[in-house]
Amino acid sequence: MAEAGALVLLAALAAPYALPLERVSPAAAGAVWLAVLALRALIVVGLALSALLLLPATDLFHSVTGWSAHEIIGSLRVDLSGEPVAHGAALGPAALLVLSLLVFAVALARGAVALQGELRRRAVGRGPQGSIVIADQSLLVAVPGVGRARIILSAPALAELDDDELEACLAHEAAHLRHRHRLVGLLAACLAVVARPFPGARSAERGLRLSLERDADEYAVGRTGTPLALASAICKLAGSPASTFARGPLAFGLDGVGAARARLDGLLVGGRSRAGAGLERAALLLGVCLPLLVAGAAVAFALWLAAATPPAALTAALTCGG
User: What is the pTM of this model?
Assistant: First the structure.
């Protein structure tokens, strides 16, 4: 039974990487990648909790903590003990997990404060659709990952994008705000921090962010009816040096030639329309089944951990550092 469950988890984790999800609907692809991140994060949390609660109750743990030796090196007496090693093995994974989340939270808070200061210092006025125009050498049309919901527009972008391109870019950024993409992106970033020890978490986060960009592209094209204008704007923005506002933990969206090419493929070549009905159904099935698998795995693991944890294990875990 356990082997079958492990095989199901491995298949669920591997399937999205084998499918060209950039060719299916952004909503289905985004749901799949978010569930993959959640499943990976759940596995890491499960391993950390298992080490914290189950390891102190094992015979190996007691054997290591009870081991000690005394050595005399020259005139120096050294007391050796296995207790720090055993306690570190039990507490280490959970401690690293909490530390990673704290570092991420501090980086977000510091970035948000720095962003507010930069906006006050470099803002030159209001732009179209309530955007804020800033003094920046790069072409920039973006929304910040956290903080007040607003569109940031650089003065060069206002000057170099024509009317259709600017309208398409603003509609794209408005979609991020309207569809709550910033919240999804923040959740994905938190899950990626937790799932980082598990290989493939970064790729899953990039897949999710690409899905959000494609969803915003479709909204913009549906609103403006000018896919060529949006494609032209993507090329111009991708060819411009990255702005300082598009870096760090507050960055939203994706940079790089690969992301721009995938978006252009959907706009110009019809990337989504090339997906067959079977691939679309497979993505939808994964988008529905993976969240259910995550929820089921979480409940099953919680029940198993409650049954497997000895009554004194929590006390032993809490006293590991003592």
Answer: 0.82
